[in-house]
């Protein structure tokens, strides 16, 4: 879409939002038929995706607005069940947009495969033997997946580690071969697994050991994406809280997460609140992204904050997020799930590298949304107001009752299912 600024989108009805999307000429009639249909994922398609299928499990799909990243506008498809996430991301994206937008970069698309070798008579000699044949092994890996070379990717590098060398190690000694592969626009799990499996017999020959595991690592440390934003304090002013107060509160909140795993885990969950919905909506493997993100947050030996917040010499708030991003724009279920295909169309990204950068920018926005709320009014004020609708529905409210009961819960400051049930009974009398 040309712009991600759609003023008033929040206050439209679902029907009005759908009409607006239809009028934008972004989707074909077939696209919107899928997007707006009662069962967008056909049961036959679902049955081909996983085993033992009995149905599908829909989630709300909302649009994160206002995102300006490296000067380009992005509308973010977000599939999530938790209220306030989409609103918070869009709110922060507007603040960052007014401050010039996010800047992002990526290190490339190099994923990691691991081959485990045990029982080598001499582990150091085995390591040297593998490294001496590095070029031959890379060529063999490429031969196992030749189409990747044609796409400009392929096996790039190889490394060997020896684990558990210490005499008192409680685990057995092993040699681990790391295979680094540029998987282009694919996440690359199947590609890497195919390559790793193909190398196993050669590696056994070279090491005189026995190969067991041959599998992708979900911590692709050579496939990082980074996002940054710089916000003048006056743009952070909230109610009676000055911009400087909010900026300092965000930095204090970051320092708490940076120094305490008990806080970091919740801080990082808030970041994944932004990341998972776009990863899911784009048909990507969110467990892989989650696992990689948390491993990166613990890379120095202690689990810590994924983001960093600081103050620059002009007094601006500076936010940074770096994460491994094993996602794709092709492969897996991306071109199978009809809504995932439309999510890619909406995002209008040209490559997995670009998508990875958009995802970390959304994660950074989500983190600031949570920290800004926590450092000022507290998270419950906004969250519970939005949550009140779910509480009303859980208590049995339907139709016009939902708004009415949700408003009463907010007015009476009692956003509980028990209270909502009382109100539903009262309404029905
Ligand atoms: P695929 O096996 O689907 O491979 C990618 C496909 O995309 C290839 O067939 C390739 O075609 C095609 N393709 C088209 N255009 C491009 C392009 N520009 N760049 C790269 N490939 C292109 O998917 P992945 O290897 O990405 O594996 C992802 C799946 O694996 C996910 O579903 C994931 O859940 C799952 N998985 C995850 C694991 C983990 O996380 N540990 C383990 C095992 C599986 P061509 O063949 O012609 O090159």
From TrEMBL:
Give the EC number. 1.1.1.88
Q: Name one Pfam family in it.
A: HMG-CoA_red
| UniProt similarity note | Belongs to the HMG-CoA reductase family.
Which pathway does the protein contribute to? Metabolic intermediate metabolism; (R)-mevalonate degradation; (S)-3-hydroxy-3-methylglutaryl-CoA from (R)-mevalonate: step 1/1
GO terms assigned for molecular function: hydroxymethylglutaryl-CoA reductase (NADH) activity
Q: Which NCBIfam families match?
A: HMG_CoA_R_NAD
- Put simply, this protein is called 3-hydroxy-3-methylglutaryl coenzyme A reductase
Q: Alphabetically list the UniProt keywords.
A: NAD, Oxidoreductase
Task: Extract the Gene3D superfamilies matched here.
Answer: 1.10.8.660, 3-hydroxy-3-methylglutaryl-coenzyme A Reductase, Chain A, domain 2
């Amino acid at each position: 879409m040309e712009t991600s600024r759609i003023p008033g989108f929040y206050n439209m009805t679902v029907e009005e939002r759908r009409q607006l999307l239809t009028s934008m000429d972004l989707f074909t009639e077939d696209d919107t038929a899928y997007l707006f249909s009662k069962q967008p994922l056909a049961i036959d398609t679902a049955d081909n995706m996983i085993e033992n299928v009995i149905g599908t499990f829909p989630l709300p799909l909302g649009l994160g607005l206002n995102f300006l990243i490296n000067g380009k506008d992005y509308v973010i498809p977000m599939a999530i069940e938790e209220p306030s996430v989409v609103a918070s991301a869009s709110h922060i994206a507007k603040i960052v947009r007014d401050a010039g937008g996010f800047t992002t970069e990526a290190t490339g698309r190099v994923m990691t495969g691991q081959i485990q070798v045990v029982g080598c008579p001499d582990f150091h000699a085995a390591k040297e033997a593998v490294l001496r044949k590095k070029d031959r092994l890379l060529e063999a890996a490429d031969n196992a997946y030749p189409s990747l070379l044609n796409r400009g990717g392929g096996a790039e590098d190889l490394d060997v580690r020896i684990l558990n060398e210490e005499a008192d190690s409680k685990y057995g000694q092993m040699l681990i071969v790391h295979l680094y592969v540029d998987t282009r626009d694919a996440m690359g799990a199947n590609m890497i697994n195919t390559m790793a499996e193909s190398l196993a017999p050669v590696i056994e020959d070279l090491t005189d050991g026995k190969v067991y595991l041959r599998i992708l690592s979900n911590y692709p440390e050579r496939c990082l994406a980074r996002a940054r934003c710089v916000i003048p304090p006056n743009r952070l002013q909230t109610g009676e809280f000055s911009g400087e107060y909010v900026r300092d509160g965000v930095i204090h909140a970051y320092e708490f997460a940076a120094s305490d795993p008990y806080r970091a885990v919740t801080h990082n969950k808030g970041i994944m609140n932004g990341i998972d919905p776009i990863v899911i909506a784009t048909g990507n493997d969110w467990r892989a992204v989650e696992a990689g993100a948390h491993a990166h947050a613990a890379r120095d030996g202690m689990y810590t904050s994924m983001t960093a917040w600081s103050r620059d010499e002009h007094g601006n708030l500076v936010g940074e997020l770096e994460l491994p991003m094993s996602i794709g724009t092709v492969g897996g279920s991306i071109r199978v799930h009809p809504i995932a295909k439309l999510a890619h169309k909406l995002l209008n990204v040209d490559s997995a590298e670009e998508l990875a950068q958009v995802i970390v920018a959304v994660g950074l926005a989500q983190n600031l949304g949570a920290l800004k709320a926590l450092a000022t009014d507290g998270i419950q004020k906004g969250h519970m107001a939005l949550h009140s609708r779910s509480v009303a529905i859980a208590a049995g409210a339907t139709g016009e009752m939902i708004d009415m009961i949700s408003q009463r819960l907010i007015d009476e400051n009692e956003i509980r299912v028990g209270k909502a049930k009382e109100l539903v009974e009262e309404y029905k009398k």
